[in-house]
Amino acid sequence: MSAVAAKPSDELRTLMNDSSQREVECQNYLQHAHVLLAPPLSRVVQIVREQVAMAGRSDYFLLCEVTEVGLRRRLILWEAKAPQLAPFEVATRNRLIPSRALIEAENQLLYYFDEYRSNGQFLDRYQIRHPDDVKLGGIVIGRDDNLVKQSTGERLPDEVAQQMASSALRIRDEHFYRGRLRVMTWDRVAGVLDLNPVQYGG
């Protein structure tokens, strides 16, 4: 009797719950979650992973076709961090701070974004007509159950930590990202795989 193949969402969750960091393996599943990563009503025409830039290697970007007055290409830039890395840490019982992993991802995205927008050869290579068509997508990091790295001292109750993480993300978006950059957990990607298993191509 042949074994039943694991669902892609189950495969991803196995990687998410591994004790070691599985960032690279998890990236393989992003291609099946473009409903989250690409602009609405766009068509993904190319995926680029590990693009070498002066500032380093960008993890993942999408080239999308969008129709406004006419058809144009947009590049949407994403950074992936391991599901094992929490985006926030406890600063006090009333305030969180971004983790080193989140700050690193933000910093990497900004450097790649700035470089790609200002590199004419890069824009020509990917048929991007204008620097404004290079867009920040966001960061995929952590899991819903590890949004906050607890301190070694007094631990926050899980419900409180979740609420504080939600507030911390809202504050960063309201005053820093301003809708230009999104942060989501790998659970969001797994959820899309649950809903759209036919998009998985093996």
Protein architecture, described:
The protein is of the alpha/beta class. 33% of the residues are buried. Helix 1 (8-16) runs antiparallel to helix 7 (186-195). The protein has a five-stranded mixed β-sheet. It has a three-stranded mixed β-sheet with strand order 5-4-7. The model is unreliable at 198-202 (pLDDT under 50). It contains seven helices and eight strands. The longest helix is centred in the C-terminal third of the chain and has 20 residues, at 158-177. It is 36% helix and 27% strand.
Number of helices: 7
Percentage of helical residues? Answer: 25-40%
Radius of gyration: 18 Å
- The H/E string reads HHHEEEEEHHEEHEH
Query: What topology, given as strand order, has the largest sheet?
Result: 1-2-3-6-8
Shape from CA axes? globular
Major sheet summary line: 5 strands, mixed
Mean pLDDT: 90
Q: Kindly state the number of beta strands.
A: 8
Strand content: 25-35%
Note poorly predicted spans: 198-202
Q: Which class do the helix and strand fractions yield?
A: alpha/beta
Whole-Å distance between the termini? 22 Å
Secondary structure layout plus pairing:
Blueprint: H1 8-16, H2 23-27, H3 34-37, E1 43-53, E2 56-67, E3 71-80, E4 88-92, E5 95-98, H4 100-118, H5 120-125, E6 134-140, E7 148-149, H6 158-177, E8 182-184, H7 186-195
Parallel strand pairs: 3-6, 4-7, 6-8
Antiparallel strand pairs: 1-2, 2-3, 4-5
Helix pairs in contact: 1-7
